Amino acid sequence: MAPPIPLLAVRGSDGTSLLSGPPSCEQHSSFQRDSRPSRCVSFSRDGTLFGWCNGLNVSVVKSSDGSIVSTLDLPKTSLLDFSPLNNVLVTWQPYSKPKDSAQGEPNLQLWDLQSSQLIKALYQKKVESWCPCWSEDEKLSVRSVNNELHFYENNDFNLISNKLHMQKVSDFVLSPRGLPSKVAVYVPGSKGAPSFVRLYQYPVLGGPTAALANKSFFKADRVSMQWNKKASAVLVTASTEVDKSGASYYGEQTLHFLSVSGETALVQLQKNGPIYDVVWSPSSTEFCVVYGFMPAKATVYSLKCDPLFDFGTGPRNAAYYSPQGHILVLAGFGNLQGQMEVWDAKKYKQVSKPQAPDATHFSWCPDGEHVVTATCSPRLRVSNGFKIWHYTGSVLHKQDAAPGSELWEVRWQPVPEGSFPVRSIRYQAAPSELGTTQAPPTQAYRPPALRHLPATPSSKLHEEELPQNLRPGEKSVSKSALKKREAKKAKQETKPEPEPPSDSAHISNSQSEPSSGDPETDKKIKNVKKKLKAIEELKDQQASGKVLQKNQLEKLQKEDQLLKELEELQIGQ
């Protein structure tokens, strides 16, 4: 049986449409394009249903044939979502209160999708955490109400089955899968007390020993919490609005790890600066962090928070694993130039390096072969449109917004897990009429008056750090390092064989090193040999899996320079 072709929902000022996925990217034959601008669009978790609000009503249709499932008269709806098993449709509109009324109408509504009947109307003034969270079997749902968590069972929203109340629960995340369900909660610090994140397993929510894990920390105005796919661990990015040291305009961030087995840790990052992105691998066994002052570093860590692979430095601020976890894309969007680095996530080998300037959106197609990049309003109101790429760097489809119109959103249709098996990774660009957009090599600026002169090596503002394997017992060698080794080997092979020393010379050499007769030169030779010996020791440490500091890596890069200096000193003796 052939796998399904994922759909792509496109929402803009000229209406809402569904496109058949790559490579054709044509209008879906069974969906009648809605020419009215939509406020929101959403697919169900399994992709079988598609819903949108066009300012008149909320419509839900089957993705396969476009047949109508439900139509609701809710013109002000701004957000909508589906429960995991498609039993409940959730709609939200901004809360409003008439002048002559003490309280407005409930603005969060839960609907039975089969009968289109209202299950429950609730108040939800803030847009943050607007939608209730469900377990994957829908036996448990939870929402935040006045700094406490309310738990409901079997979609019965008239009865609160359990509550979690602490000093002030500011945020929570329910585990995506795995039974029994678990919940991570964040309580901000106050009056000198630290902030903390705790993990609970439902229904054990009370008592001093109820928490599965607890991690407290200072320097946190807000947090972002992410469960891995297997619901075995949580990553917590804690951020402050202001960096009191003055080192960063973006505040200060720290990354914490919590496991349901009770283990907690502060993830040790190898460069100072902001944390731009943190993503779990779909395998749940490792995660990638993009961090540090530009050019930013990207590192993959294990569940023990040990670094496994360092991608070096580059212009990047985001990371995206493919749905199958076999490919990792490191990208620089926003105020960066849209460079994307596509890596084999198992062999840590770079596949391609395309560029998508002005992109404001990136997402993987469920097939793990294609991605979409888009330039959307209101982030950018010019050059709106989207491109479908193959991960090897080829542009397969390009669609620009019509003159005078805007693109607001593009969204892939989800598919059930396992619909697309992992394919072997290709390193040759896929055929395309639109070609590829590999990033051109950047060159240093040269004033017009100097452009007729030969280029000279220029000093760089930032020293680039090369990728390196940090797994114990493994060592990755870059192409430049291999070239240097080969050149050094060739030089030694072409060097004439020295004449065998006489007996008297042998005796004097065994007793002491040859002297140049100049104490200053002898001192320089001794210092250079001492530095080379230290470099050899660093090489051994690196080969054994130890992570070297930046200053130690800089010493390794000076080996060739020191060897040349030693040779010149010895020739001049």
TrEMBL record:
Keywords: Coiled coil, Initiation factor, Protein biosynthesis, Repeat, Translation regulation, WD repeat
One MF term in the entry's GO annotations: mRNA binding
Domain of life, per lineage: Eukaryota
Region annotated Disordered, chain positions: 431-528
Bias kind Basic and acidic residues: ranges: 489-498
The protein's name: Eukaryotic translation initiation factor 2A
Residue intervals of the Translation initiation factor beta propellor-like domain: 215-410
Signal peptide bounds: none
Biased composition (Polar residues): 505-515
PANTHER family recorded: EUKARYOTIC TRANSLATION INITIATION FACTOR 2A
Role played: Functions in the early steps of protein synthesis of a small number of specific mRNAs. Acts by directing the binding of methionyl-tRNAi to 40S ribosomal subunits. In contrast to the eIF-2 complex, it binds methionyl-tRNAi to 40S subunits in a codon-dependent manner, whereas the eIF-2 complex binds methionyl-tRNAi to 40S subunits in a GTP-dependent manner.
Any one cellular-component term (Gene Ontology): cytosolic small ribosomal subunit
Family annotation (InterPro entries): TIF2A, TIF_beta_prop-like, WD40/YVTN_repeat-like_dom_sf
Pfam families: eIF2A
Organism: Zoarces viviparus
One of the GO BP terms on file: regulation of translation
Family indicated by similarity: Belongs to the WD repeat EIF2A family.
